[in-house]
């Protein structure tokens, strides 16, 4: 069975094709353009109740007709074969579709909340929830059309569903470097297992402004798996190291900034509050309900 590119990029495996294309998806490739990958591992849900919740969510997302993709732990497991526990489901969508997805679940009686309108919302049912993500917390990673153009398909909970490609998965994890969470190991293992499927030029274009972050992850991979260094294209390492060589010949920037805040607002807070470094963006207070 093939997926319809017009119906939320999700279809129950035993069911037939649904009608009613969404106008927002009519410019996307045919169904055959999104390859199916056989996942060798799946995350372990926290409880049977959580697994039932995820099944229900995927069915409802498919019925909604809205476009979305899975990322996070489910995508990592599909691409690496590593199985590990997960506490939630990460649903990625365009920013414009987030209110529609929230509205769909609100009408069904789920509790919804916009945690941070810059990038994330949640849908809850009892103790279980899933995240709706349309950008990164630091604003560097908006979910756009290319995410859907290059997506893959997996079967999860008896449902054929779209997941982000290895390229976008790496981008989505590149800046997650907090004291209590670091996704560098995920990036290393996606490179190890999916290097041939990564569009390295597209990844570089995503991280053009932050090419040093990409270089750090690639050096990390080379150090961890030295026998697999050739998994990273030579032209890419040459390009990044040439940038570094030229940068070393320049004087330091005039403006003192702390880009560490793009990794963790908390861990680098002192640099902004006490050490005279400029922040990379504004910071507001949490609502007190």
Chain-wise SSE layout:
Blueprint: E1 10-12, E2 44-45, H1 48-64, E3 69-70, H2 72-80, E4 85-86, E5 89-92, H3 98-107, E6 111-116, E7 120-125, E8 128-133, H4 145-149, E9 152-156, E10 159-163, H5 166-173, E11 177-178, E12 181-182, H6 184-194, H7 200-206, H8 211-224, H9 234-248, H10 269-273
Parallel strand pairs: 2-4, 5-8
Antiparallel strand pairs: 1-10, 3-5, 6-7, 7-8, 9-10, 11-12
Helix pairs in contact: 2-5, 5-6, 5-7, 6-8, 8-9
Write a brief structural summary.
With 289 residues, the protein is an alpha+beta fold. It contains ten helices and twelve strands.
What does the model show?
The protein has about 290 residues and is an alpha+beta fold. It has three domains: about 1-165, Beta Polymerase, domain 2 (2-Layer Sandwich); about 170-250, no CATH class; about 250-280, no CATH class. It is about 35% helix and about 15% strand. The chain has helices at about 50-65, 70-80, 100-105, 145-150, 165-175, 185-195, 200-205, 210-225, 235-250, 270-275; strands at about 10, 45, 70, 85, 90, 110-115, 120-125, 130-135, 150-155, 160-165, 175-180, 180. The protein has a five-stranded mixed beta sheet. The longest helix is centred in the first third of the chain and has 17 residues, at about 50-65. The radius of gyration is 20 Å and the shape is globular. Residues about 1-30 have low confidence and may be disordered.
């Amino acid at each position: 069975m093939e997926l319809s590119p017009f119906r939320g990029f999700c279809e129950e495996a035993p069911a037939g094709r649904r009608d009613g294309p969404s106008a927002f998806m009519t410019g996307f490739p045919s169904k055959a353009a999104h390859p199916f990958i056989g996942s060798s591992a799946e995350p372990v849900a926290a409880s049977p109740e959580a697994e039932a919740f995820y099944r229900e969510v995927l069915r409802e997302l498919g019925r909604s007709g809205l476009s979305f993709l899975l990322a996070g732990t489910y995508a990592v497991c599909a691409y690496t074969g590593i199985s590990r526990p997960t506490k939630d489901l990460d649903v990625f969508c365009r920013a414009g579709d987030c209110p529609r997805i929230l509205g769909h679940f609100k009408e069904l009686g789920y509790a919804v909340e916009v945690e941070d309108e810059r990038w994330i919302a949640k849908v809850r049912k009892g103790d279980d929830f899933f995240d709706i993500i349309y950008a990164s917390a630091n604003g560097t990673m908006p979910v756009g059309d290319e995410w859907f153009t290059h997506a893959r398909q997996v079967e999860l909970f008896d449902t054929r569903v779209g997941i982000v490609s290895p390229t976008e998965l790496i981008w989505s994890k590149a800046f997650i470097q907090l004291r209590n969470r670091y996704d560098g190991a995920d990036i290393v293992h996606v490179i190890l297992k999916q290097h041939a499927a990564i569009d390295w030029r597209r990844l570089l274009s995503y991280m053009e402004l932050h090419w040093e972050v990409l270089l750090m992850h690639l050096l990390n991979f080379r150090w961890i798996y030295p026998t697999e260094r050739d998994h990273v294209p030579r032209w890419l390492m040459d390009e990044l190291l040439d940038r570094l060589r030229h940068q070393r010949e320049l004087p330091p920037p005039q403006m003192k900034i702390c880009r560490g805040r793009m990794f963790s607002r908390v861990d680098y807070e002192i640099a902004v509050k006490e050490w005279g470094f400029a922040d990379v963006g504004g910071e507001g207070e949490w609502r007190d309900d």
